[in-house]
Amino acid sequence: MEDPTKVTIPARLLGALHAEAAKAAPREACGILLGNGHDIERISPAANVHSEPEARFEIDPRALIDAYRDARGGGPQVLGYYHSHPAGPPEPSSTDRAMAAADGSIWAIIGLGRVEFWRDGPSGFVPVGYSCPAR
C-alpha cells in the first residue's frame, strides 16, 4: 500500500533541484514534478513568469499545459510542483499558502541548502517525508 505521507525521488533529481535553484538565484526557480503514484521520476524546469521573480513564482502556463497534455497521452503524471526560496527556508510561505489549490499536490521547496516536500491539502500544507531508493 502506498504511503501518502512519503514520496520517493532519485538522488540525481534531488541534486537537479538544488542545481535549478542555484542557477535561478536570486530569482525563484520553479517547475513541475512528474511521475506515478508517489514516485517522482522526472522534473520539468519551467520559466518563472511572475512579475516579481525574486520574491514570487508563477510557472509558465505553456509548461503546465504541455505537462498535462503529455500525461493524458500516457506520459508521467503531474504529481506537483517545485520552487525555491533563494533566501528563505524550504517551507511554504504565507504567499504559497494563500495561492495553493488544496488539491493534494506535492510541493518541493528548495531553500537554505535543503529540499523539503509538502502535500497541499484541504487543511493546508503538511510535511511529506522522502526516500531516495537505490536504482
TrEMBL record:
Domain of life: Bacteria
GO molecular function: metalloexopeptidase activity; zinc ion binding
Pfam families given in the database record: Prok-JAB
Residue stretches making up the MPN domain: 7-131
Signal peptide: none
GO BP, sorted A to Z: proteolysis
Protein keywords: Hydrolase, Metal-binding, Metalloprotease, Protease, Zinc
Protein name: Peptidase
Natural source organism: Allopontixanthobacter sediminis
Lineage: Bacteria, Pseudomonadati, Pseudomonadota, Alphaproteobacteria, Sphingomonadales
